[in-house]
Structure formats: structure tokens, C-alpha cells
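Render this sequence as a predicted structure.
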Amino acid sequence: MAHLRAIFFVLREHSALPRVDNHHDSPARVPQGDTVPSGHKAESPARKAVENNMHDLAKNVLGGILQPCSTDPMTGFFRTGDCQVTEEDVGNHGVCIIANAEFLAFSRSRGNDLSTPHPEFDFPGVKPGDRWCLCSARWQEALEAGKAPQVVLESTSAAALEVVRLADLKRYAVKLDQEK
């Protein structure tokens, strides 16, 4: 189901079809500036803003292209393997962590048990050494408690910077080729 929502979101936001404004007191019309010749994409300010926002959301905290976090276990708000944050992800699951036992125990103590498998949700549970897209606020909470796990900056969404500081993330960073 999450995959279908993700596909619908992408199709809805990046459709080449002109949008129609439906006002209850006027007939349907195509907003001025959104009319496009067949086969061309509309270039309205609203569409450009959506595309720029989606582009920014696919960046990592270093300014590069967001890299996958994990597909085993499958992670991310939409279970796509990456920590991309969208409007639907109000929890900002943007920090790609490398779980350790101390952090998993801390998270469980705070009411977020990531380690217990839930087969009914196709969730195998997170084990020490697994990568996982974590809520940015949970990582900040763990940092303040002295329990923050390591992070993969290349796989951590730029949207995480709405909650955590880059300097803090860098202190816990591991290079992709240095992990495990």
C-alpha cells in the first residue's frame, strides 16, 4: 500500500497534464499559464515550486544526491530503501543510522521498539549493524541522552537539518566504506 501511495504522489505531482481548477461558482477552467501543447510539460510557478521542493527533498545533508540507506531491512517512510522526506512524512524519517544495541535499548525505553519483529507488518525488526531511517527528533533525543547511533551522511536527507544540526551529525558520521 505504501508503494502505491508513493507512486500516486509522484504521478500526481509530476504529471504533464494541465491542472484544472474547479470552483463551485464557476465552470472548470485551465489556469492561465498552465496550458501546454500536447507532449510538453506545464511551466507554471506552482509546478516549478513543486519540482524544486521534490528536488531538494532528494538531497542529502552534504548537498549531494540522497543515497539508499537500506533494503535489508527495507527502510524509509515509504519502504523504498531511502530516507527521503515528503509532506506525508510528518515524523521526518530522514536520518540514516547504523543501529547498535545501546541505541535500540534506548529507543525501546522511549516507547519506540524497533528491534521486535512484527511479521504481520512484514517488519523483521532492526538489529545491531542494520541501517535504518530514523525520525530526526528521535536521533536528536538520543544525542541529548548520550545514546546517538552513528549516521551515514550520504544517506541522510537534507530535511533532517530542520531538526538536527549538521555539526552533530558529522560527529557521528561513518563513511560508507568504513561501516561494519
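Summary. Residues 1-55 have pLDDT under 50 and may be disordered. The chain has two domains: 1-57, 63-180.
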